[in-house]
Amino acid sequence: MKLIIDTDPGIDDAMAIAYAAAAPEIDLIGLTAVFGNTHVHQSSRNARFLVEKLGLNIPVAEGAPFARGETSHAPSEHVHGPEGFGDLTEIPEIGENHTLAAAEFLVEMARQHRGELVVCAVGPLTNIADAMRMDPEFANNLAKLVIMGGAVFCPGNVTPHAEANIYHDADAADEVFANPPTTLLVGLDVTLKTLYESADFEGLAEKSPNMGTFLRDISRFYLKFYKEVGGLEGCGLHDSTAVIACTHEPMFKIVETGLRVVTTGDELGATRPDPSRPAVRVCQDVDGAGVVRLFTERVTSLP
After folding, report:
1. Which parts of 143-302 are beta strand (E)?
2. Which fold, 2-299?
3. Residue 71: what are its φ and ψ, rounded to 5°?
4. What is the mean pLDDT of each run of 10 residues along the chain (303 residues)?
5. pLDDT tens per residue, range 260-287
6. What is the DSSP string of 3-38?
7. Where do the structural domains in the chain lie, given as residue ranges?
8. What's the CA gap between 64 and 48, in Å, rounded?
9. What pLDDT shows up at residue 229?
């Protein structure tokens, strides 16, 4: 399966990209960067760093720096650290971004691989909405769009109503759901059932001295946040669960519903069922233990 991950690395993004690199059923052909956990220039830098660390030869295209109509962005430093990788703050600039901006790159790759390309969006949906505006055929050219975002049947995480990726550009998300490609939504309804604990990260480091140790080290900041804010002994495999859903749908209980996103007021970013809109497939439940096992099996195969 040909895959592009639209990403804002981000600790859980790094985990998801590592999984995609290790999964034999995935042909990872590029990364597109968006603002979110970090500023967009940090996102693309971190993505290029991960590409190098994983020994991949794929492009990174930098995309939207801000949400629709905004001129600034406040990254999630309290969750992912000042540079996106926890306590790691010295991250080298490796290589250069692709000459095309992210939305243009997505449009071009969807044309080249019509009916084959899956895009997994694990950040705000600004790049996806921009690609849909740029090319009316973009949605039809995709095999599938898989989104890590939303909280359809459960509370949010950035507010009581909203999940962070949707909240950070509610207008773009609502635009995507108004006329969606073939879409699978992997939200907090399932990703919080895939807790990855400190002992799991230690196991990664033991079996994968390079990548596993890196993920263990950057995760300490993330695990501390989950412990202090949520009282949890692990972190959700948010972005990795979305990448796993690209190829392992039988691990999920999926329902169909149209969706709208609240774009103003106290419930900004809430994802609400709307039967008047085209149906998307929404993950409602998951084999959480199975996802954790699969993630571990794949990532520990890396050096």
Report:
1. 144-148, 183-186, 195-197, 234-236, 252-257, 259-261, 271-273, 280-286
2. Inosine-uridine Nucleoside N-ribohydrolase; Chain A (3.90.245)
3. -125, 10
4. 98 98 98 98 98 98 97 93 96 97 98 98 98 98 98 96 98 98 98 96 97 97 89 93 98 98 98 98 98 98 96
5. 999 999 999 999 999 999 999 999 999 9
6. EEEEE---HHHHHHHHHHHH-TT-EEEEEEE-SSSS
7. 2-299
8. 17
9. 84
CB 245 within 8 A of CB 283: yes
Task: Say if CB 165 and CB 261 are below 8 A apart.
Answer: no
Number of Cβ within 10 Å of residue 297's Cβ equals 13
pLDDT digits (tens, 9 = 90+) for 230-245: 888 899 999 999 999 9
Q: Which amino acid is at 88?
A: L
Sheet of 280-286: strands edge to edge? 60-62, 27-33, 2-7, 117-121, 144-148, 183-186, 280-286, 252-257
Nearest CA to 65 out of 14, 130, 122, 18 is that of 130
Residues in contact with 104: Cβ distance below 8 Å, sequence separation at least 6, in sequence order: 61, 131, 134
Partner residues linked to 82 by β-bridges: none
Other CB atoms within a 10 A radius of the CB of residue 250 amount to: 8
Structure tokens at 31: 């990364």
- Residues serving a catalytic function are 8, 238
Looking at residue 287, its amino acid is: D
Rounded to two decimals, the pTM is 0.98
3-state class of 249 per DSSP?
helix
